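User: Could you walk me through two proteins back to back? I'd like the raw sequence and the C-alpha cells for each, with a short line separating them so I can tell where one ends and the next begins.

Assistant: Of course. Protein one, sequence then structure:
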Amino acid sequence: MRPIGPSCLVDALRSLRISHTPTARPSIIRSTSIASRKAQCPQNVRHFSATASMAGNWLEPNLDRKKKMMKGRARVATGGSIKGTTVQWGDYGLRMIDHHRRISAQQLKVAEDTIKQRLRGQKYRLYKRVCCNIGVFVSGNEIRMGKGKGSFDHWAARVAVNQIVLELRGMVHEQVVRDAFRLAGNKLPGQWQFVKKGTPPIVGITKLDGITLEDLKRPRRKVPGESLEPAPQTSNSETQRTPLDLP
C-alpha cells in the first residue's frame, strides 16, 4: 500500500504558496509626455501675484533695521530704457512727472487709504509698482556732527521721474478713477499725472508718441559736403591781438 502522508503534506504546502505580486502601481506616464509638458511651459515668465509675499509687504520689507543704508539717488533710465513708465497690469495709473525723490512708506500708505476711501463699494483691484526697501536713519535733535549715522526712523522708496507708482483695474468709471488718483496725488510729494493703458512710454524726458527707440538712437541727419564752405585762414599777425587793458 502506497503511503500518502508525505505527498499530501507536500501538496498542501504547494497550495499555500503565496505568489509574489508587485504592490506598487506601475507608472503609466511616459517620459516623452513629461518632456513635452516641460517644453510647453513658457520660459522666463514672471508669474505676477498681488498677494503679500512672506518676505514682507510693499511698505515694510523683511530686512534688518540695524543695517545702515546710504541715502543714494533714484536711478533715472536715460539710456533708452522705458521700464516702469507704462501701465502694465491695470487700466489706469498714477505717474510722477516731477524730478526723482524719496517717498516715505507713511505717505504711500496715506495715498492708498485715500484711494480705498474714495472707491468704497466699487469692484476694483489696486496694484503697487514700488517697494519701500530703503531704510532712513535720522539723528536726534541737538546732536553734534559725527558720532555715527543715527538710528532707524522709517522705510522709504526711491521713485524716479516718469515712473508709475499705482495702477488700478476694475468696474469703475474713468472719471471716478481720475478723482481718486487726484486725491492720492495731493497726499504725495511732487507732481503727478493720470495715465491710461496704451499711453506712450517716456525715455528720459521724451515721449515716444509717433517715434520709436530706433529713431532716437539714429544719428542726426548728415549734411552734404558740397554745402560746407572752408573756414577762412587767418594769419599769425591777426591772431596776435592787443590786450583790452592797454590803450
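----
Protein two, same layout:
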Amino acid sequence: MSHNLNGKAALVTGGSRGIGREIAKRFAADGATVAVTYNANSTGADETVAAIEKAGGTAFALQADLLDAGSIPDLFEKLDRELAERKGGNALDILVNNAGNEGWANLSDATPEAWDAIFAVHARAPFFMVQSALSRFSDDARIINLSSGLSTRPLPSAPVYSAAKAAINTLTHVLAMELGARGITVNAVAPGWTATDMNTAVRENADMLKGIEADTALGRFGETSDIAAVVAFLASDDGRWVTGQVIEASGGYRL
C-alpha cells in the first residue's frame, strides 16, 4: 500500500463486517489510525481490529447504535478519549458513513417502523455524525458517504432503502457546498452488486448470479476491496479536487 494516510485519524461506521471492514483495513494499511463502530456485532468489530493489528496497523472499536441520533455525541466523546490517548488530540481527518441496515420491504410490506429505521441509519445518522464531527475535523478533512446504485436505479422490492440512498446523495451535495470553504471534501460512493453476507442468497442462486454478471460490463460480482479502493482514493490527497460527487462503483452494471 502507499501509506499515504500516515498520521491521519479515520472513523468508519459499521466496520464490523463487509464493505466497512474492508475500508477500515485499507485505511490502516495506508497508515491511518482507524476507529470502527458497531451496533450489536462486537465479535465482528473485534475481528476487524485484530485483522488490522495483525497486519501491523492501528485500530479500535466503539459501540454505537445509530438508530438513536442522541447516541452520536456520546460516540464522539468516546472517540475523543481514544484519539487523545493514541495521538495526543482529537482531530479527525476522515469520516466514512457506512453503517446500514436491511431494507428489503416492498410497498405492501413496508411499515412506518421500517421506514423510520432505514432512514434513521442511512440518512439521519450521517447528517448528525457530520454535525458532531464539525469541531473535530481537520482542515482538508474527507467525508465519504456510502450510497447505492439503487439511489438512481431504484427497485420496487426496496423502495424505502432506495429513497434513503437517494437522500444521502442529496446530503452529499449540500455538505460539499457547506464545508468547501474549509477545504473539506464530501463525496458518496455508490456500490453495485458487491459480495457481502447480505446478498449470499443471491450469489448462491446460479441463475441470478449469471444474470447479474451478464449485466455487468466487467463481467463479475464486485468485491469489498473494489469499493474500499475507491473510498481510499477519495480519502487520499489524490482525491483533493473531487467533491460533491456520487461515484458509482459497480463494474459497469447495466451500462
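The radius of gyration is 17 Å.

Let me know if you want the two compared in more detail.
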